[in-house]
Amino acid sequence: MLRVFVDSGSSIKQEEKEKYNVEIIPLKILLGDKEYQDGVDLSMEEFYHQLIDNKIFPKTSLPSMVEFEKKINEYTSAGDDVIIITISSKISGTYNFIRLLFEDNNKVTVIDSLTAVGGIRLLVNEINRYRHEITEVIVSKVKSLISRIKVLAIPESLTYLLRGGRLSKVSYAVGTALRINPIISLDEGKVHVDAKKRGIRHSMEYIVNALDELKCDPNYEIIPSYTYKTDNLEKLISMTDPKYHAQMKVYDNLDPAIACHWGPNAFGYIFVKGE
User: Model-level pTM?
Assistant: First the structure.
């Protein structure tokens, strides 16, 4: 039997585990002097209350693996194969931590997604599409899809990118003064500014046009993602050619471990580029 694990950087919620046929390893979140497990004992309401109202910026850290290491070892001892997909190694140490933990267990395959949130959902969907195949084939299918996943997102405010160390003070000052919105992507696993546009509407147009320019693959979902409220996302969808709407099956309200770096009201699309 094949067992699949993802970390909470996938933004797959605890209540979605059965739907995606996965188990979730929660990242840790520190809010003030309290530590939480992402998606387990921290509600979205409490997270945004602390972030917006109390202006407490969270810190994230590697997951606690005691329970999951035991479970994974039990699975492999029973003859099961295990695939673990982690958030990009370029933005978190989770991949290297878990890879070293299981380097001597040949029943465990740890995959660096080189992406996050909806990108990992797409990889999990690929696993579920090929679950009837042997593990080696499934791993090959997943790895071949990684380079085709495109993340494009727009933060409503640059404040959280600055506080999270993703933006320089100079870029923050210039961008805020000129109302410049960076369109952020993950390229080869790294956070990258894909483009800079003045005004939110021009930024939205860039993402909408990218679906055509990058030949969005109709065989895969488009995952519309947002933080806190859907207002900006709904505007983006209304600007998008209706031919893409049928691919938008799940709206993803990003988990705190990722949302803290984007801030409230960020939004964007995650999709698969054409071959």
Answer: 0.93
Token code pair at residue 59: 């810190």
Average pLDDT along the chain: 90
pLDDT single digits (tens) 19-29: 999 999 999 99
55: left (phi over 0), alpha (psi -120 to 50) or beta: left
> Quick check: is 53 in a domain?
no
Domain that residue 107 falls in: 2-27+62-146
Cα(110)–Cα(84) distance, integer angstroms: 5
Report the run of H or E that residue 113 belongs to, with start and end. none
Q: 16 and 142: one domain?
A: yes
Same domain, 105 and 218: no
Residue that finishes a domain, picked among 122, 146, 170: 146
Half-sphere exposure of 217 (CA within 13 A, CB side): 14
Q: Contact, 34 vs 45, CB < 8 A?
A: no
Residues 165 and 105 in one domain: no
Residue 58: closest CA among 267, 268, 263 = 263
* One domain, residues 21 and 142: yes
List, for the chain, all residue ranges whose pLDDT scores fall below the cut of 50. none
Token duo for residue 84:
């673990």
85, 88, 94, 97: CA torsion to nearest 10: 90
